[in-house]
Amino acid sequence: MMTRRDYMQETIVLTNKISEMKRLKGFIAKFGEENHFSRETIFDTILALEEIFTNIVHYGFTDTNPHEIVIQIKREAGLCTIRVEDDGKSFNPLKTPEPDLTKSLEEREGGGLGIYLNRKLMDHLDYERNSGKNILLMKKAVT
After folding, report:
1. CA atoms of 116 and 53, how far apart (whole Å)
2. Which long-range contacts (CB under 8 A, 24 or more apart) does 80-83 make?
3. Is residue 119 part of a domain?
4. Which of 42, 67, 101, 115 could cross-link with 16 by S-S, CB 3.0 to 4.6 Å?
């Protein structure tokens, strides 16, 4: 039987402003500490979400109107699952090709490093477009 200690879930609703990053980092740090994540797991999770959130804010919307970005995090059976949902333009980050790290910065095409970093920091990524929303699932084993 699963108890409350085995399963925890929290949600934060942010607006598409980069100034919301402070709230996001605090939210993840608090959840991680309350659920006894290692410092490395908390750091990796914050870094991965910073990259995703920044991309959504900078590239996700074609207007200057306020938009909600909903982030849900849960811990269950040794796994941290993060669900990021936004109503921005359709974008599947998993279709982004990996950057050629053998090239110098000057030779490389711009972009793609944040997604590459997420692939390295998280154990599993999944994307879907549903009802006009981008939904990114990120999973990481809890240590």
Report:
1. 15
2. 80/35, 80/37, 80/41, 80/45, 80/139, 80/140, 80/141, 80/142, 81/137, 81/138, 81/139, 82/45, 82/48, 82/49, 82/137, 82/138, 82/139, 82/140, 83/135, 83/136, 83/137, 83/138
3. yes
4. 67
- Its pTM stands at 0.87
Specify the CATH number for the domain of residue 34. 3.30.565.10
Would residue 51 count as lying in a domain? yes
Q: How confident is the model over 71-123, as pLDDT tens digits?
A: 999 999 889 999 999 999 999 988 876 755 566 555 556 555 678 888 899 99
Q: How many domains is the chain partitioned into structurally?
A: 1
Q: Measured between alpha carbons, how far is 76 from 94 in angstroms, rounded to an integer? A: 24
